[in-house]
Amino acid sequence: MSTQSSHDVHVLPSEALSLEQLEAACRETAVFAWSQGSELCPEPPQVIYLCPTNVCNHRCCTCGYGAMRRGRKADGSPQRGYMDMDLFRKIVSELPRGFRRAYLQKTGESLLHPQIVEMMRHLKEMRPEYDRAMHTNASVLTPELARAMLENLTFVSLSIFAFDREAYRRAHGADHFERVMANIAMFHDAWDRMESPPKVYFDVVRNVHNAQLRDEEIFGVLQERFPRFNVGIHFPFNFQGIVEEYDNRIFSAIDPARMPTCIHPWDMMAILWDGVVGYCVGDPLEKAALGDLRRQTVMEAWNGPGYREFRRLAAAKDFAALRKRHIHCGSCNWNFALKSQVLTTLCMHARHAISDPSGQAGQPLFTGRDMLRAGLLNYARGDMAEALKNTAFAEIVSRDEGLRSRAGWWKQRVLDVLLMRKDLEYWEELLRKEGLSLESVHVSKYSLAQEQAALTADTHCRTASGATVKKDAF
Ligand code: SF4
Prior knowledge:
single chain
């Protein structure tokens, strides 16, 4: 299957896109396919997780790693491995062109792959336009790996879930706190010497081992020690029920018909270390296989039978059928963080790529045709509020009946997108019964622990292990 599509009309230089070209571009967006429940998605995946290895040297309490199993070895242990370099090159050569984000990772510590430096360089060489990203626990970070990351990646995330040695040992299942702090200090210094270094941020997942620290305290201790890096604190992902601590009763109470329809079947591809296509970056079991890149190309798999069935069942909210296929979206708490509903992710490519060479964007609009044109540009960019205004205006002001009905048709498609979130109040009500809100659903244990925790004086933080540390102790 070709990776070229009429979505690529945006690359036509310096001439105005016709209304027909814009309509075709909008029809081929992932957001169109998602909101229409289409099995096929003409637009290639926006975000690609390419897994060098599913081996990890940590056992984090926030991760479904322990449950991961795709087949069993003779001794009963889960099957794990490292991606073959030839397979990696084949997959990279098939990745769609244009602005995308590729993570060199899925569930595992990518820096353990013996050829990870070569992989980073190759990805940059072959897809320089990509956002090239990696999460790491930084426990095996060396100056050589740091240099390769700084030179070849555009985005690095450092996983750290606790802030003293004992709490870290419990949270990460590894006694690596001092080593990790030293490695990050080395990375921070190297970052500082770079002319255009990647974005780096700390990925702090809430858990019982950091529950006693307020957000501001975590920001404080990390930014004081590593001022160049950002800090992100977020809810724990329940790995679809595997990490039980973060399960919510909402999954047994919610009417499946009113579960949100996750965007990711239309915008994300997760490629396992052996080339099998999984269904989500958050799939801990790795038992579902939507395709096999040892035998298919990326785009053949993206619209192949496995993905088409996945999208059909996801759009129908048939979670029981999905479960039978080892797909556990029906108990995924990502749905309620609305992370899986974020249009900006889905429209990432369009926002970066679709421009208006006519230069009309932002200019006064006078005709119904101009209005519809602006509406289509905003649809493709993912700005549905503006698209709704524009298409509604076009429908009202157009004298041409054909144009009016075209504008009305697109206005309805914009409404389809907005209606994907119509059950927000229903979910909010269910969560309220658990004493939660859409904002807090993923931090229930954290919230409870935080309520009970007695924080010490402003200059000190108490950790989950009971130790009291000075904020500047790092
Ligand atoms: S519902 Fe959850 S598991 Fe399913 S595709 Fe979305 S994020 Fe992944």
